[in-house]
Amino acid sequence: TVMTSFQIAAVYIAVNLLLLVWLALRVATYRLQSKVSLGDGGHEALSLAIRVHGNASEYIPAAMAGLLAMAALSTGPWSMHIVGLGFTIGRLLHATGLGRGILPFRQIGIVLTWVGLVAMAAILVWEAFGTVG
Q1: CB-side exposure of 72: number of CA atoms within 13 Å?
Q2: By the number of CB atoms within 10 A of the CB, which of 7, 15, 55, 84 ranks highest?
Q3: Distance (Å, rounded) from C-alpha 123 to C-alpha 73?
Q4: Alpha-carbon span 82 to 8, nearest angstrom
Q5: 9 with 63: CB under 8 angstroms?
Q6: What is the pLDDT of residues 69-110, one digit of tens each?
Q7: Are 64 and 16 in contact (CB under 8 A)?
Q8: In Å, how far from its chain's centre is CA 22?
Q9: This prediction's pTM
């Protein structure tokens, strides 16, 4: 059977939520190891983990709203998968690249993230005007 647009959106939302939790657990682990409750306490590893989680927290909600809006406009499954998967791979690569200092992963992650967001925006405008009279 073919997945609905909302089911496709749900899959990418779930994966990105798990990514956020994983990144938050990394921050919590560094906090416990460093015995720092607030801020980074001058610990570089904790500061980096906080930034990696913060960056994901800045981009993921907007993209997930975009996927839901695409689903609400009945965007086709291939479009949903292409932008959802591209964005999600971008976020995974960026988190890995930033967190481990792998510049090419970070750069590719940035590009995939931004291309995913722009593609979502373009699809939403196209779908919105395509449903008008």
Answers
A1: 10
A2: 84
A3: 10
A4: 11
A5: no
A6: 999 999 999 999 999 999 999 999 999 998 888 889 999 999
A7: yes
A8: 12
A9: 0.90
Cα–Cα distances (Å) from 88 to 33, 65, 84, in that order, read: 29, 14, 6
Q: Residue 130 and residue 133: Cα distance in Å, rounded?
A: 8
C-beta atoms surrounding 64 within 10 Å: 19
In DSSP notation, the chain reads: -PPPHHHHHHHHHHHHHHHHHHHHHHHHHHHHHHT-SSS-TT-HHHHHHHHHHHHHHHHHHHHHHHHHHHHHTT--HHHHHHHHHHHHHHHHHHHHHHHHT-HHHHHHHHHHHHHHHHHHHHHHHHHHHHT--
Please count the other Cβ atoms lying within 10 Å of the Cβ belonging to residue 17. 12
Comparing CA positions, the residue from 104, 96, 76, 81 lying closest to residue 10 is 81
The single-letter code of the amino acid at 131 is T
Long-range Cβ contacts of 12-15 (<8 Å, 24+ apart): 12/64, 12/67, 12/84, 12/85, 12/87, 12/88, 13/64, 13/67, 13/68, 15/88
